[in-house]
Write a structure and sequence with these properties.
Blueprint: H1 6-22, H2 29-36, H3 40-46, H4 50-64, H5 72-79, H6 84-91, H7 100-115, H8 121-147, H9 157-176, H10 187-201
Helix pairs in contact: 1-2, 1-4, 1-7, 4-7, 5-8, 6-10, 8-9, 9-10
Length: 205
């Protein structure tokens, strides 16, 4: 992926800020240039079109989407001893990391993905592929919990994985509908995690 530095970085960040609040169709190259104080022609030195900026945004999203997710082996180790609340909190991750700039970008880009989900084939494909990856991740970890006797053997792994994933998606939809959203800080996120933890507690052996 192309390195984000200098003017290209400013274009990229202005684009995701504007697109996440105004919608892709309502953002123009001229308005991006105005926001960062450069000539519109300067943008074309870095990007051939607005479509190419969006493609770069999607590339960035794919590159860093799973960056902060705990490795599956670490989560398998966790499920052997963790209580339900600790486990659910670790699974219902967000994009918060030590890199605040990257965190901010990923929140905005995820909002763009949600906004374009039903009109952009690329956004839809990435959304579905990431969800399938998440399902496999959750399933592998919970099945390990069953194998080591931490979770009851009749636990419906596939249903749990689907409920957990869909809960995270629902949290995202609600969060990104709020223009003041800050990752992990909305009250409803804690309530949903608490509800999932209570459900999961009943499955622990």
């Amino acid at each position: 992926m192309d390195e984000l530095t200098g003017t290209k970085e400013r274009i990229f960040d202005a684009f995701i800020e504007m697109t996440s609040s105004m919608g892709y169709e309502n953002v123009t190259v001229r308005e991006i240039a105005k926001k960062i104080g450069i000539n519109a022609a300067s943008i074309y030195y870095h990007y051939e079109s607005k479509e190419q900026v969006l493609a770069h945004v999607y590339e960035y999203y794919s590159e860093y989407y799973f960056e902060n997710r705990k490795p599956v082996e670490a989560m398998k180790e966790m499920i052997e001893t963790a209580d339900a609340e600790e486990f659910i909190f670790a699974m219902a991750r967000n994009f918060v990391s030590d890199d605040q700039k990257k965190t901010y970008r990923m929140v905005l880009i995820t909002k763009i993905i949600y906004m374009r989900l039903f009109q952009d084939a690329m956004a839809n494909r990435m959304f579905n592929e990431n969800n399938q990856n998440e399902i496999r991740y959750i399933t592998d970890i919970v099945q390990h919990g069953i194998q080591v006797g931490r979770i009851q053997p009749d636990f419906e792994v596939e249903i749990f994985a689907s409920v957990l994933l869909n809960s995270m998606i629902a949290m995202g939809l609600v969060a990104f509908a709020d223009p003041n959203y800050t990752a992990g800080l909305l009250d409803h996120e804690a309530r949903v995690r608490s509800m999932l933890a209570r459900l999961f507690t009943s499955a622990l052996a």
